[in-house]
Inverse folding.
């Protein structure tokens, strides 16, 4: 059998070959495959090995030397430096964040992979105020069950095959019509992709649009898991404040002008975590700015239908004429979170690469879930359910606010929709201390700092009033405000 | 409102800051934000802008100069070079692969993102021989529908909430017991993660274990979408041949020794695309080699239950004592592909980072699909179904072989299980020509070259005999072998 050789090296977009060689050697040193004072392979042999030009390998070695990662001896040999030093503070800092790696196990490349929100939500507690999920008891489960049986009668082979990668044709046609009608804009089914929840939509868009060091813009505060995704992609993250009255558009423009972000990830309607809504007057202008500065807007609109008094302003997407907004509409949160259905709506330049990323990520969202969603969403019962749900959520918001009022120095702005209260604690109260003590009392909430792109503001907490029932909610917040730290 | 600044730059693991600055400037030039002969920001201002040390920015600019990307004028100013040149052939080659980018649309960072298999399978044809999916008519759809109704009676709130990120507890406990018993090895539920198909499992493991330029090992040929995933992560791909008698273990050992791959992605049982099975005698030895050379084995075992005469050898996973094998067991392919259920089984060092990647990718596989799968898989009917399915698939394989026999110079090895025939065409016949002409006749198949990690061997095709019914299959292959090009 003739030995096969490596595939020709492919250039990872944005990474030049000599940098890849550098990184490769660094990886081998970090994993202990090359030890202190060990001689590196010669330039000639590493070039052969990695199938790169000798100059490429030489350039990488020069860089390793410049950065103090290796030293030269006998004019020809490169050796691993005893203490990988760096004259640059940033590099030293970020290196020091790497945890110690065990020697005798498979070592993940991304040792820093993390998701703080996931860790907080993993902790089992009685008074769950960290989950921005709707209480399953508020969902029309029995009706849904009956309904699903009809879906199977109608599509007996629904579990027998994959759907298209872009999503079930019938569902996309329907959503297209629904959104075109409710927002009064023209749309085609090939401008819609179905993803497994908005989480997947954010992840795939990040993979499509970010490469290392690319600037992106987010709101401050923002959805923490989105932040982790952007960080993992190596984005440079800039932030604009979101307040009860929306953005400071001058600040937004300055950011767009100065940093030329690849995209602006926004959640302008019943914003997570604050509950704020960007006013209609700002939306059109923001889309103009996006087109002017060539910045894609990712508009995450998961809470639109969860309003309490009156419907929110129309999404920014409706003002977009040139394809600078991609619209994420997750319906499943308030219908059937277990289904994981989100519609991503955008123009060809966004949808085409997104589809390829989706095909590689999971080959398409399960067909069954899409058919169930489609038929339920079309039913009259669904509309009744949503109306009832609004009332129930408003009631829970009111309960939460009543109980929070006992803490006279805790401040928040009443949200007009959504699932969360964003509460400012008095300076004397430590969020970390409160969280630790709360967890001991089986109460959990989200510490606001994980929602801060700058990881600075440590005086807010997010309380989700949607997950536990009314009496538990009342009791949980009563106990929370009484907690002494 | 006080202006907020950027978050401190985070080091994307494996990418040093000056490289990130370099890439960032390259990106701006490629997107036309910095035009030919335009002056770059000064070192001082870019350092301020990117929040890096001035030396870091300087180093990046020096690199740009060295690589001919910019030129220096008036001793102080850096300007974009007219023709971004490179003295290195590889870099020039990979640059030329980048498509022309439109100026007035959001531009994906990964312009080279692609999935050839997806493109072939997208083409609608009558005689579909490119889909390695089981004919939905062979699946017990009516029983499944009845069955699902019971699932809803049993778990009325199953659509109301997310399951745990790692997967439904009950399902993981069950699979744990099932696999522990059938393979006679001890397992704990926290060693199991449920993913949305094995496609997602491969994607998440690639994200966890590969960084740019990392060597990995695959079989030659192999699953083409896995190749695309690994390429997108920037892996350097090495290959070992797989033949009717498995691997050449000397070649495998040489590869492990020489290239120190991060993992070996294997599909040793009714291998896709060839149908070959690695013999029992090699499996134990391969696991020993993996431990010796500290290489994770990703064992993709999607076709295990699709055997025709006798069950295949036990998986490599059973020989693993030190955590060097992660086992992907997708059951859904032959039960209900629309459910998208795969179990990833491994030790803590693999499972922990995988879980975080899963939480960021989609927050967990839908609970409904897991419960349906669980209850169906436990039923007696399922076992009967699988037995019948084996017979039906074997019959289709036989039909495919009978018809292929008409082409006396097409060669293949009879597979003992799985869904595909791997057919070697005579040298005179061009695969691309045959595919083009076949598509005109509404027949499609997978050209073997996309399964070749080295993109060289253009004399094989993959024929999937599982998707269309017997008479269509007979007719489709009859027409295929008669196709004149």
């Amino acid at each position: 059998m003739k030995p096969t050789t490596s595939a020709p090296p492919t250039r990872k977009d944005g990474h030049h070959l000599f940098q890849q060689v550098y990184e490769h050697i660094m990886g081998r040193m970090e994993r202990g495959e090359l030890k202190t004072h060990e001689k590196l392979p010669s330039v000639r042999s590493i070039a052969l090995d990695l199938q790169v030009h000798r100059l490429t390998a030489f350039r990488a070695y020069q860089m390793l030397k410049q950065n103090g990662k290796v030293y030269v001896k006998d004019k020809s040999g490169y050796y691993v430096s005893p203490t990988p030093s760096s004259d640059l503070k940033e590099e030293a800092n970020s290196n020091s964040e790497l945890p110690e790696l065990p020697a005798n196990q498979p070592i993940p490349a991304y040792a820093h992979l993390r998701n703080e929100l996931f860790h907080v939500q993993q902790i089992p507690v009685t008074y769950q105020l960290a989950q921005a999920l709707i209480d399953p008891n508020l969902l029309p489960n029995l009706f849904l069950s009956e309904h699903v049986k009809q879906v199977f009668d109608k599509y007996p082979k629904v579990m027998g095959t994959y759907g298209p990668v872009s999503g079930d044709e019938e569902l996309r046609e329907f959503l297209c019509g629904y959104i075109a009608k409710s927002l009064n804009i023209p749309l085609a089914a090939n401008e819609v992709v179905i993803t497994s929840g908005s989480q997947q939509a954010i992840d795939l868009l990040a993979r499509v649009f970010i490469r290392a060091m690319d600037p992106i813009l987010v709101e401050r505060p923002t959805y923490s898991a989105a932040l982790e995704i952007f960080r993992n992609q190596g984005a440079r993250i800039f932030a604009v404040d979101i307040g009860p009255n929306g953005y400071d558009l001058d600040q937004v423009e300055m950011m767009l002008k100065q940093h030329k972000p690849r995209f602006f990830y926004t959640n302008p309607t019943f914003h997570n975590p604050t509950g704020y809504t960007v006013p209609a007057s700002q939306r059109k202008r923001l889309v103009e700015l996006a087109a002017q500065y060539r910045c894609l807007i990712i508009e995450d609109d998961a809470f639109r239908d969860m309003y309490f008094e009156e419907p929110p302003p129309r999404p920014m997407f409706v003002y977009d004429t040139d394809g600078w907004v991609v619209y994420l509409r997750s319906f499943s949160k308030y219908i059937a979170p277990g289904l994981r259905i989100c519609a991503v709506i955008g123009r060809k330049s966004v949808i085409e690469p997104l589809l390829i990323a989706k095909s590689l990520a999971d080959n398409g969202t399960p067909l069954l879930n899409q058919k169930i969603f489609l038929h339920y969403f079309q039913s009259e019962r669904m509309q009744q359910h949503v109306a009832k749900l609004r009332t129930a959520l408003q009631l829970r918001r009111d309960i939460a606010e009543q109980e929070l009022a006992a803490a006279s120095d805790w401040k928040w702005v009443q949200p007009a929709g959504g699932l969360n209260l964003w509460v400012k604690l008095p300076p004397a109260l430590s969020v970390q201390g409160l969280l630790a003590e709360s967890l001991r009392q089986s109460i959990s909430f989200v510490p606001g700092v994980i929602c801060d792109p700058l990881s600075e503001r440590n005086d807010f907490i997010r309380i989700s009033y949607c997950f536990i029932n009314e009496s538990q909610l009342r009791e949980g917040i009563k106990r929370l405000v009484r907690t002494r730290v």
